[in-house]
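User: Hand in any protein.

Assistant:
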Amino acid sequence: MNKAQHTYLIKQKAQELGFMYCGVSKADFLEEEAPRLENWLKQNMHGQMHYMENHFDKRLDPRLLVEGAKSVVSLLLNYYPEKENQQTGEDTYKVSKYAYGTDYHFVIKDKLKTLLQYINEEIGEVGGRCFVDSAPVLDKAWAKKSGLGWVGKNSNLIAPQVGSFFFIAELIIDLELEHDGPIKDYCGSCTRCLDACPTDAIVAPYVVDGSKCISYFTIELKDQLPQEMHGKFGNWIFGCDICQDVCPWNRFSKPHQEPAFEAHPQLKEMKKSDWEEITQEVFSQLFKKSAVKRTGYNGLLRNIRFVEQSPGS
């Protein structure tokens, strides 16, 4: 078999496993990203996410993560929920859509392991590693390089025909494959995401100050929430989807087909009063396998109290 056949087989299997798109780029140094990342870190836009400072070189060169790496296989997995399963209305607190169901790390890791096993069975012994947002890999940069979409003004990867409600994952392997090329940026003159961000975290088109983002405050920040942010979170208590919800490209979002991402039936029934009275037991039951566990029961309570006491909530 040649490179083209290997690439075809991998993409076919990825589709069979439920991935929305699969693209390939050459495992090489990310020249364009290096100064951007350095500048972003220098300006402290990562806030207390100190792990972003670690493994700077590895973030930019996949060959330092996987010996002999030749190709980065980027994959997208849809998580957009059915309209009737989304939290709507003003009488509830909101959790980001990506966290409705089972923690994506587990779901995607299993699919990636199956894909890597398939490659070894069908193509031969191939060395590689699976990556799901938990290692120093610049997911969006690789997905962009492999033509899966462009990085929008809100710094999310946007794919034509589907929008941006998907997870990004990678296989970095020591197998030579056919590479895909990047596509055009179709944000045009639109500034909806910049205009809609309540904390002004999108400081310029394509530049997000992570330390001002609602997702950062409600998930990453372990300290007290800053008083100057009072009243700016709306009803968001874990993550935030505002810059995606207003993006015109997300009118193309279609519901996912992944049973593991289905929300706990109780979630969309929760009213503000239910959230405010949530017990450790209910928290554990609702978010047993969810990414919401990351903030913990006390962290979620802190977020609820902060939003509850905000003017206009």
